[in-house]
Automatic annotation (TrEMBL):
Residues of the Acyl-coenzyme A oxidase N-terminal domain: 21-146
Domain of life of the organism encoding this protein: Eukaryota
Occurrences of domain Acyl-CoA oxidase C-alpha1 (ranges): 288-449
Pathway: Lipid metabolism; peroxisomal fatty acid beta-oxidation
Pfam families per record: ACOX (PF01756), ACOX_C_alpha1 (PF22924), Acyl-CoA_ox_N (PF14749)
Family to which the UniProt record says this protein belongs: Belongs to the acyl-CoA oxidase family.
Keyword set, alphabetical order: FAD, Fatty acid metabolism, Flavoprotein, Lipid metabolism, Oxidoreductase, Peroxisome
Classification via Gene3D superfamilies: Acyl-CoA dehydrogenase/oxidase, N-terminal domain (1.10.540.10), Butyryl-CoA Dehydrogenase, subunit A, domain 2 (2.40.110.10), Butyryl-CoA Dehydrogenase, subunit A, domain 3 (1.20.140.10)
Lineage per the UniProt record: Eukaryota, Metazoa, Ecdysozoa, Arthropoda, Hexapoda
Protein name per Swiss-Prot or TrEMBL: Acyl-coenzyme A oxidase
Length: 669
């Protein structure tokens, strides 16, 4: 099947209808030109010799892994050369490009080296001393060694204080002795650990003279650098097939009396001196900082997955024609069915809203990391709370949004070659890794409770929670104007009142004699609801600020488009949380009807720009890797071409006919 060189006329028409400059929107959504240029340059270099994704789909588990390693190595080699040209000594090309949606193209089943870049190298730099960085970190940055972040165990992932891996200090030899004493202490899940890495950072309970000193991070070699065989005392392997991310090579690790020098404990914060004196970290949560970084990254990465799925569904819905709206008219593009718009457009705007929130969150991470570098730890709780709530709501919204977008593509959405399967399994994994979502919401719930107490005692509140004080001071919600500020405030007001309710329930339970942990546990439902609303109110407020500020730096047409996107996001989000809002704010039927009218109006206003907005996300065809989502819209030809590549179509008659079907049909006669 040859793919036409021309663009599908429906898609070409859609692009002509755009009312804004796509390139200006692209720069806006990528937070400026510089990253965009870098991304495009990298795509040009990296995508020149990629294998066919359809062929990859039919490989065995082992071949898939080996093939991914080959692609990964090729890609990293190219990226390193590019980094040397763009900014010698820097690492931004590595880190930004290899872990974003582009990484998913190079390695559709995930990368066994993702955790090396995201966590291993960063933890060596940020948790080690400068000497340790020189000794281990530089080699990791140069990929002379490959590593991963080994924390989760078979028995514990969430409750870190329950981890069982031990590091006992031996004063005589100035070494730590590492052990995983039980089956449940086996390390389980770390990406790349299975068969790829030769080093890792192990998170273990430190013991000095059998006294527990809390969790610490240890640099450990697990495989010989030449032979790649496991070192003595180390039991290591792959945890087996998962529902997705087949090439991430998640692994297990058992340790029996493995000795490492004392200087292998990462000692930027806590320290063990040669005589066994333990010097505490100034703030124990600093050991959790590598996780905070990844939680922030996930918001950007998952909003990218969400936008990828939205682009595929939008382009396909512009090409797909079905079911006349009026009986005597031709079949319309399915995108003209209003219910189809309702399935797709809220996902487009949600992806944009999280993209903007993710950019803000990552800036906050950088500011906090700089402050931590100057021994100022005051912003850690605020960053922790925001990273937890945004990581949880973004991964949830993207996971279910991607599934809605797949469903919006009808039967063809179910084809592996449409690529929703990979995108979904990437997205949903992030609901669990780097902190299971409910657990993260409970962290936020705890901080909300504490903040509520601070507010009642007149203490200053952290900036992203200051609205609690404002809303709590209102006797009732101000007059409902329905404007954007009002909609943002409605979400904030609902979050505030949910926090109030949770706080009251918690206090009531304490007064009835429950212990604080029991009271916290039974208040968990209300606390997690408050935490979720807190995050959604932040995303809405941030979107509002992004659109209403700096207008003078953008063209009128882009401002107009952004206003429509904001309008849809706010109206849709308020409608989605209407049950919560109606509990605290009196709205008439007229108000509700007006919201529905606004939703339908803005859907219609956005309709001509949908394809152009998705073009503006700037996904290379190879990133989307979808027969339904290609820029040229030649959907049917691509579906057919992919089908032709099925291994079952490579011979006239499959072997099973002679072996099974023929004898079976004969015996049934
Ligand atoms: C895949 C590639 C595909 C191709 C490319 C595509 C691109 C993909 C990109 C993404 C790739 C990602 C790779 C995947 C990596 C996954 C790696 C992992 O999962 S690694 C494993 C991830 N594992 C997890 O995430 C485990 C989750 N569990 C945990 O984090 C902890 O056990 C806990 C937080 C739940 C509790 O901890 P506990 O010690 O029991 O604490 P308490 O509750 O008693 O609170 C005490 C105090 O501490 C405070 N505080 C807490 N945390 C922080 C913080 N971070 N900061 C500051 N403060 C914090 C808290 O507020 C409280 O304050 P206060 O009230 O005293 O004032
Ligand atoms: C694809 C993937 C990659 C991963 N990569 C890595 C890696 O590189 N390195 C690494 O160390 N780990 C990794 N992990 C492990 C991951 O971080 C953990 O699985 C995750 O933190 C969740 O912990 P858990 O599995 O113990 O879940 P559990 O805590 O057992 O969760 C089970 C259920 O219990 C509930 N629950 C648990 N505790 C509480 C609580 N306190 N209150 C209320 N409910 C609770 C949860 O909400 C959930 O519903 C990876 C996992 C996946 C899926």
């Amino acid at each position: 099947m040859t793919i036409p060189k021309t663009v599908n006329p429906d898609l070409a028409n859609e692009r002509k209808k755009a009312t804004f400059d796509v390139e200006e929107f692209t720069a806006f959504i990528h937070d400026g030109e510089s990253f965009l240029q870098l991304k495009r340059l990298a795509e040009e270099e990296l995508f020149s010799d990629l294998p066919d994704p359809v062929e990859l789909d039919y490989l065995s588990y082992e071949d898939y892994y080996n093939r991914t390693v080959e692609q990964c190595v090729n890609a990293i080699t190219k990226v390193r050369a590019m980094q040397e040209r763009v900014n010698p000594g820097g690492l931004e090309v590595y880190h930004t490009l290899m872990t974003g949606p582009m990484g998913t193209t190079l390695m559709p089943g995930g990368t066994p080296m993702g955790v090396h870049f995201l966590m291993f190298t960063r933890a060596l730099k940020n948790q080690g001393t400068p000497e340790q960085y020189e000794k281990f970190g530089r080699r990791a940055d140069n990929c002379e060694i490959l590593g991963t972040y080994v924390q989760t165990e078979l028995g514990h992932g969430t409750y870190l204080r329950g981890l069982e891996t031990r590091a006992d200090y031996d004063r005589q030899t100035d070494e730590f002795v590492l052990n995983t004493p039980k089956l449940t202490s086996y390390k389980w899940w770390p990406g790349g650990l299975g068969n790829t890495v030769n080093h890792c950072i192990v998170v273990a309970q430190l013991y000095i003279d059998d006294e527990p000193m809390g969790l610490q991070l240890f640099f450990l070699q697990v495989r010989d650098e030449q032979t790649h065989k496991a070192l003595p005392g180390i039991d290591i392997g792959d945890i087996g097939k998962k529902i997705g991310l087949q090439a991430v090579n998640n692994g297990y690790l058992g340790l029996t009396n493995v000795r490492i020098p004392r200087t292998n404990m990462l000692m930027k914060n806590a320290k063990v001196l040669p005589d066994g004196t333990f010097v505490k970290s100034p703030v124990s949560q600093l050991a959790y900082f590598p996780m905070v970084f990844v939680r922030c990254m996930i918001v950007l990465v998952n909003s990218g997955f969400h936008a990828m799925a939205a682009t595929i569904a939008t382009r396909y819905s512009a090409v797909r024609r079905q079911s006349p709206i009026k009986p005597d008219e031709p079949e319309p593009q399915v995108l003209d069915h209003v219910t189809q718009q309702m399935k797709i457009v809220p996902e487009i705007v949600t992806a944009i809203a999280y993209r903007l929130a993710g950019v803000k969150l990552n800036k906050m991470y950088e500011e906090t990391a700089s402050a931590v570098g100057l021994s100022d730890y005051s912003r850690l709780p605020e960053l922790h709370a925001l990273a937890c709530t945004l990581k949880a709501s973004c991964t949830y919204d993207s996971t279910f949004g991607i599934e809605r977008l797949r469903l919006a593509c009808g039967g063809h959405g179910y084809l592996a070659s449409a690529n929703f399967g990979n995108i979904f399994t990437w997205a949903t994994a992030a609901c669990t890794y780097e902190g299971e979502n409910s657990v993260l919401y409970l962290q936020v719930g705890k901080i909300l409770l504490k903040t509520w107490g601070d507010m009642l005692s007149g203490k200053p509140l952290m900036p992203t929670m200051a609205y609690l004080g404002v809303c709590a001071s209102w006797h009732e919600f101000p007059e409902w104007t329905g404007d954007w500020q009002c909609l943002v405030q409605a979400l904030q007001y609902a979050a505030t009142n949910k926090t109030l309710i949770a706080s009251k329930s918690y206090t009531r339970r304490l007064e009835s004699g429950l212990s604080p942990p029991d009271a916290f546990n039974v208040t968990g439902i209300e606390l997690t609801q408050a935490a979720e609303l807190h995050g959604r109110a932040f995303v809405a407020n941030n979107f509002f600020e992004e659109v209403t500020q700096n207008r003078e730096n953008r063209s009128a047409s882009l401002n107009n488009l952004l206003e429509q996107l904001l309008e849809l996001y706010l109206v849709h989000t308020v409608q989605r949380h209407m049950a919560d809002i109606l509990r605290f704010i009196h709205l008439t039927d007229e108000h509700l009807t007006s919201l529905q009218d606004r939703l339908e109006t803005v859907l219609a206003e956005l309709r001509p720009n949908l394809v152009a907005i998705c073009d503006g996300f700037d996904f290379h065809d190879k990133v989307l890797s979808s027969v339904l989502g290609c820029y040229d819209g030649n959907v049917y030809e691509r579906i057919f071409e992919a089908a032709k590549k099925s291994p079952l179509n490579q011979r006239d008659v499959p072997a099973s006919f002679a072996q099974h079907l023929k004898p079976f049909m004969r015996s049934s006669l």
